[in-house]
Write a structure and sequence with these properties.
Blueprint lengths: L1 E4 L4 E4 L4 H30 L20 H9 L4
Antiparallel strand pairs: 1-2
Helix pairs in contact: 1-2
Length: about 80
């Protein structure tokens, strides 16, 4: 990563590993999973007539996260 140290105003670079990134994303991802779960549980009866092949679509920047679709499928039981 490269950026500017805000307190000193100078350029700085550092290395992040995948575990550090995953740790930083845990809270936002759990918020997304929670919102999807809450919404799907609220509207699940109205989804009954839908075909089994119907799935949810991910959009926006969060949809670009690798395996976020798998996470949502595992946590909610919904096809994504």
């Amino acid at each position: 990563m490269k950026g500017r140290n805000l307190s000193e105003g100078v350029p700085r670079s550092f290395t992040l590993n995948s575990n550090e990134i995953l740790e930083a994303l845990q809270e936002p991802l759990q918020g997304i999973v929670g919102a999807v779960s809450k919404r799907s549980n609220k509207h699940r009866p109205s989804w009954a007539p839908m075909s089994p092949s119907a799935a949810s679509w991910l959009t926006g920047g969060g949809a670009l996260l690798r395996d976020v679709d798998k996470l949502l499928m595992e946590e909610t039981g919904l096809p994504v």
